[in-house]
Amino acid sequence: MNWTEIIAGVPVLAVGDAARAEILGVEYDSRAVRAGSLFVAMRGETTDGNRYVRAALDAGAVAIVTDSRESFAFADARGVPAALIADGRRALAEVSANFFGHPERQVKLCGITGTNGKTTTAFLLEGLLNSVARKCVLIGTIETHVAGAVRPSAHTTPESRDVLAIFADGAAAGATEAVMEMSSHALQQERVWALPVDVAVFTNLTQDHLDYHGTMDAYAAAKARLFEGVGAAAPRVAVINADDAYAAVMVAAAKDCETRWSYGVDGAADFKASDVVLRAGATSFVMATPFGDAEVTSQLTGRVNVYNLLAAVAAAMGRGLTLDEVVAGAAALPPVPGRFETVTNALGFSVVVDYAHTDDALRNLIVLARELAGEARVITLFGCGGDRDKTKRPKMGRAAGEGSDVVIVTSDNPRSEDPAVIADEALAGVRETGNMSVRVVLDRAAAIALAVNEARAGDIVLIAGKGHEKTQTSHGVAMPFDDVAVAAAALREREAKA
Ligand SMILES: CC(=O)N[C@H]1[C@@H](OP(=O)(O)OP(=O)(O)OC[C@H]2O[C@@H](n3ccc(=O)[nH]c3=O)[C@H](O)[C@@H]2O)O[C@H](CO)[C@@H](O)[C@@H]1O[C@H](C)C(=O)N[C@@H](C)C(=O)N[C@H](CCC(=O)O)C(=O)O
Ligand SMILES: Nc1ncnc2c1ncn2[C@@H]1O[C@H](COP(=O)(O)OP(=O)(O)OP(=O)(O)O)[C@@H](O)[C@H]1O
Ligand SMILES: N[C@H](CCC[C@H](N)C(=O)O)C(=O)O
Ligand SMILES: [Mg+2]
């Protein structure tokens, strides 16, 4: 693609004298630049892409898009086509859309935001769309589904350039739908700039990421941007959890959406569940919808999944599926990896791996386990992520201490922090509840073995926080680690001794 085509329609403040370049790729990271790349310099929080313009040119960049007059003049002086723009991330989205041939216009996009339930709802919605033979791209925390392949995900919501590259691959393989988790980081940083969202979903808002957003109101405002449209028109359909304390904020933001649907269990809602029956691996409820009532059954476990099912069903109906189609589709959907995933064993107790890494998620998980365990015990193992919201640590500790018979505090992903310090902060919360059955075992594998060896018939062991993750990041290094595999190994060892 030539230089003129790639900056067509992009609001540029100035363009350099050089006008000829054949662009073979668009990159926002100098380390990814190859011969023929266009490099877009973005200002970040750790560094500034403008510091890498020289490195990008040395690596073969043939054009530069920048918000810095210095970088612009530097590239221009080297005879490289350059554009001066106001905002790097927005420009990245605009040039990438041109480069990839506007694939965002070829798929109908459902965007899902909220603190918890995005991944689950996204998988459910993808499953419903697939059940009526619509090809669908999925972008989210665990993995990316595109063109019949599964790719690992580095972020929940990638940069616009990467989203558009995925959409282009999907559209080329016949996808007409896309389902995407939209994290608050991505909405705030405008990684989703100029993506037209057809159906927008809000799951819930509880504490997380305050290290980044500062306050709950700022966090809510970032999420609300999905409903306003980020550099694009407001979504056509808004699907909002009416039972959530922040519902009104999302409804207000959705004022320009053509259709606003609420969903919930507690109060009035367009998609409302009643007569909820919760069993392990079998959830059912009666669902009232604007299109009639039906009984929904699902293999997923727990009350939170009633919400996720309602959200996915409403979004699917927003995309034109019928009531019969969503009911049939929902019954067939498998659980999501790392979300209330049971690790089988012959010892008579349950071991569950779950991605609960906020106090709200942990509390919900423990309440569910309590219900399922009856008179038996709930043994909860958890840790807290390093380099993330520190204020949630004692809160997670309180949630664990309040509902569990036995608590094991361990490491999650300490990242660059001292695991012992993180554990102390979580332990303080457990101690506040007066729960005395608490142990700290920093080595996660040893902690999992302890939990498994502690369990008696009927008990439920909860291994919380890492869910599907396949690595543990400690001292800045990611090493292979898989809660399900580690638990399975510990169970085999105990079975062998039994
Ligand atoms: C806080 C945050 O979200 N940071 C993300 C953000 O960083 P940033 O804007 O501060 O960028 P920066 O690191 O200062 O770099 C500025 C620019 O210089 C470029 N650069 C940098 C170095 C270099 O050698 N050459 C170069 O060109 C960078 O590519 C970037 O374009 O943009 C970067 C490029 O895409 C991301 O890698 C980075 O993710 C960091 C590593 C991260 O940990 N993000 C997490 C918190 C995150 O995004 N999480 C959410 C939510 C998770 C959930 O709850 O589901 C997610 O969507 O994944
Ligand atoms: N609707 C919900 N409401 C509250 N908690 C939920 C809900 N759905 C799932 N959870 C809990 O939150 C955990 C994470 O769920 P999921 O991965 O679907 O959310 P997410 O929003 O994608 O999270 P992340 O932002 O970390 O990717 C689950 O393991 C479960 O414990
Ligand atoms: N996307 C979330 C995931 C947290 C998962 C948990 N295992 C942790 O490392 O804190 C985050 O980056 O905050
Ligand atoms: Mg997710």
Automatic annotation (TrEMBL):
Gene3D superfamilies: Mur ligase, C-terminal domain, Mur-like, catalytic domain, MurE/MurF, N-terminal domain. GO terms for molecular function: ATP binding; magnesium ion binding; UDP-N-acetylmuramoylalanyl-D-glutamate-2,6-diaminopimelate ligase activity. Keywords: ATP-binding, Cell cycle, Cell division, Cell shape, Cell wall biogenesis/degradation, Cytoplasm, Ligase, Magnesium, Nucleotide-binding, Peptidoglycan synthesis. It comes from Terriglobus roseus (strain DSM 18391 / NRRL B-41598 / KBS 63). Pfam families: Mur_ligase (PF01225), Mur_ligase_C (PF02875), Mur_ligase_M (PF08245). Meso-2,6-diaminopimelate binds at R388, D412, N413, P414, R415, G465, E469. Coiled coil: none annotated. HAMAP family: MurE (MF_00208). Its cofactor is Mg(2+). The modification N6-carboxylysine is found at K223. UDP-N-acetyl-alpha-D-muramoyl-L-alanyl-D-glutamate binds at S30, T156, T157, S183, Q189, R191. This is UDP-N-acetylmuramoyl-L-alanyl-D-glutamate--2,6-diaminopimelate ligase. InterPro entries: Mur-like_cat_sf, Mur_ligase_C, Mur_ligase_C_dom_sf, Mur_ligase_cen, Mur_ligase_N, MurE/MurF_N, UDP-N-AcMur-Glu-dNH2Pim_ligase.
